Amino acid sequence: MDQKELRAWEARCVQDETPRCTAACPLHVDVRTFCGLMAQRRFDKAWQTLAKVLPLPSVLARLCDAPCKAECVRKDAGGPIETGALERYCAQVAAPALPPKPLPSRRKTVAVFGGDLCGLCAAWELARRGFSVSLYCGVPGGSLLNLPESVLPQGALERELENLDKLGVDLKRDTDLTMALLDSLAESRDALFVDGDAWPAGFDNFGQPDELTLGTRRSGIFASPAGQPSPVLRAAAARRAANSVERFVQGVSMTTSRQLEGAYPSRLFTSLDNVDAAAPVCGDLCPDENAALAEARRCLQCECMECVKVCEYLKHYKQYPKVYARQIYNNASIVMGTRQANTMINSCMLCGLCEVVCPEDFSMAELCLEARRSMVERGKMPPSAHEFALRDMAFANSDACALARHAPAAESSDYLFFPGCQLTASDPDGVQAAYADLCARLGRVGLMLRCCGAPAHWAGRQAMADQSLSTLKEEWKHLSSPRIIAACPTCLNTLRQWLPEAEIVSHWSVLRAMGLPEGARSDGMVLAVGDPCAVRHDRAIREDVRTLLDRLGVDMVEPELTGELAQCCGFGGLLAEANPELGRLVAQRRADELAEDFVTYCAMCRDRIARTGKRAMHLYDLIYPGGAEPGSRPAPGYSDRRENRTRLREKLLRTLWKTDQSGAEPHEAVQVVFTDEAARLMEERRILRSDVQKVLHYGARAGAQFGHDETGRHLASWRPSTVTYWVEYEQQGEGVLVHRAWCHRMRIKGGRA
Amino acid sequence: MSVIKVPEADAAGWRCAACDEPLVMRPVELEYLDSLFNVELPACPRCHHVLIPEALALGKMHQVEQLLEDK
Ligand code: SF4
Ligand code: SF4
Ligand code: SF4
Ligand SMILES: [Zn+2]
């Protein structure tokens, strides 16, 4: 990612955009913060928020005609926030604030001609920018003095006139505002501003002030248009003029980059879903404090955060995509020193939910996958992040598990069943039953057991994914390119994307067309349907599955995030590998969506939800039920998953193809049992039964072991490649009872471990 | 390179099975991702076979691995 791409990513996320009220306010009052403080009864602080941006705050807060209301997001949920009423209430109760501190003197003189609201505001704005300002007027305040006490109470104007004095404005009262005076001021000062309500006769000759700059035909003279009824727009004209004067004396462009000076449209998106309508509590004024608090609490504190609301991962790192994009960019730019974002980058499930909910289609998945690929390319991917998953993938594609054959006794295949390596690992009996069913009802159905390559893809190892895929493709071609029936939604997506020449259908649509097999359960359960994240963009599958569940007599309950909005279980993107703790939180969040038992059609979703302790089943548990009660089938651990794949392959070869090909490796002969504690530790530390067998076979036999004086236990180690395994065990007859097992990646130089 | 001592490197009660010797603490070089550390670890005084105790593997050693991996 280069600077330009970073900026494009950042620009996409609107979370930092100005709230619509502030953007619509010609003076850009921070209405959101103001309302937040008002709601907390922090009136003095709220007042400071106003006084920071409003000229003559005690006056303007009382006169503000609140054009922000037209844009307030709340307007479609009961009515806009009555900002004007809140400002007035605040002006009434808050402690007065000091005027802003002017910037250091610029040694430039500006005259303000006319002291109605606009002139006073202009003097204020110019003085705080460091100009020496003299204000020429008759009676300061002009038409403001005609306002009733109820609108502008006694003292409010006086206070701000004192503040103008503190700002250093030289007030020339009782001045006759003639054209002659104007001419002489124009000669003697660096710039001149004319209040629209004080235009002397003949001033029209300078033409109407320019809309953008408020400049007139005469260089250095700026003016507000006459007859502007809105007080806040009069103040905004004053600010615009002050900005122009500043540009003018600096000699810079009068016109560039001024789009954000007045009101502008904001891109900030704020959802009204889950927002109850609430009507305004205050009208033009807030009757009392309670009303003011209630009104302020109606403010939605507008922000986007749509993606963060639905994604545990985005929430976990406490920011939002715009910030993450910058962190990822910085992470990649670090040459020396510690990278902070590697785990963050490797924790995205690449599930695509953010993109669906984001008003700007921001895809964190794309960003993170790209970052992973680049880390792999530059040799910066931490080895421990995905190695275990990639070894598992290699195992699923090894001779121990993989298989590609026509149906028994068939010479060709009309279809090829592709159950996927995780379904095979989770429920080998279900896969066997499904294959038998397909063969019985569809005729010539070949079988391919292997991994689709998704883990390599997720790990950012595109070369590895390509290689796995090209083997798959070769074998598929070797079977004369039959139509593929895929059971796993992730396989389906992966194959559709990378093997576009193949015709691929889901097992669910096949079952929908063929009807349910005999023996499918139909005992009217109430189940929460959990769509896997992989079917987010595949409505057809989701409908096939619901049709099947309906035919199974299942009463379906849908979680709030379903279908296109389905959450990932934590397997996606290899989150559970790179960040197991977060992986557990994610699975738990999904398990907690609904109280009902869970049914899904992805083996990983089912196993990961089952691991949280929730009763969860795969559609196969209902369609191809084994002996066990469907919700209670255990979620096999890492070793059992491998064993399930190996055994299934052997069993099918033996029973269907009548070949015995169990080419057991020597270490597999080691008889080993585990204490419960050992089994638990191994699962947590991702140590496989076969790792232990290798330690015992190769390590212990090579004499690399220790003995304990008191317990009589043995300790042996072995390093097959990048990880050293240690096994503490006890000899039991022919076999071995394992008490503890641990591992590390660091190597003893020149040693055996 | 100074030798690092770690309290987790305790291997009381273990002896080398091949040499039948109780273990002693010796400086050992550990390497990971192009970094080298000199650590005092329990080893057989005769054949120098090193023992990495569980507490060390999962504690300090794991921390350093993570650090070197730039997590
Ligand atoms: S709800 Fe609050 S933050 Fe949102 S636009 Fe209205 S005033 Fe501004
Ligand atoms: S986990 Fe899914 S929703 Fe969350 S950021 Fe990654 S792709 Fe988006
Ligand atoms: S949904 Fe997320 S990424 Fe999209 S604009 Fe909102 S905060 Fe930014
Ligand atoms: Zn020895």
Automatic annotation (TrEMBL), chain A:
It comes from the Bacteria. The keyword Iron applies. Pfam families: CCG (PF02754), Fer4_17 (PF13534), Fer4_20 (PF14691). InterPro entries: 4Fe4S_Fe-S-bd, 4Fe4S_Fe_S_CS, Cys_rich_dom, DPD_II, FAD/NAD-bd_sf, HdrC_iron-sulfur_subunit, Helical_ferredxn. Residues 337-367 form the 4Fe-4S ferredoxin-type domain. GO terms for molecular function: 4 iron, 4 sulfur cluster binding; metal ion binding; oxidoreductase activity. Transmembrane segments: none annotated. Gene3D superfamilies: Alpha-helical ferredoxin (1.10.1060.10), FAD/NAD(P)-binding domain (3.50.50.60). Keywords: 4Fe-4S, Iron, Iron-sulfur, Metal-binding, Oxidoreductase. PROSITE patterns: 4FE4S_FER_1 (PS00198), 4FE4S_FER_2 (PS51379). One of its GO terms (cellular component) is plasma membrane. NCBIfam families: diclust_near_Sec. This is Fe-S oxidoreductase. It comes from Pseudodesulfovibrio alkaliphilus.
Automatic annotation (TrEMBL), chain B:
Keywords: DNA-binding. Transmembrane segments: none annotated. It comes from the Bacteria. Residues 13-71 form the DUF7479 domain. The keyword DNA-binding applies. Pfam families: DUF7479. GO terms for molecular function: DNA binding. The keyword DNA-binding applies. NCBIfam families: DVU_1557_fam. This is DNA-binding protein. It comes from Pseudodesulfovibrio alkaliphilus. The lineage of its organism: Bacteria, Pseudomonadati, Thermodesulfobacteriota, Desulfovibrionia, Desulfovibrionales.
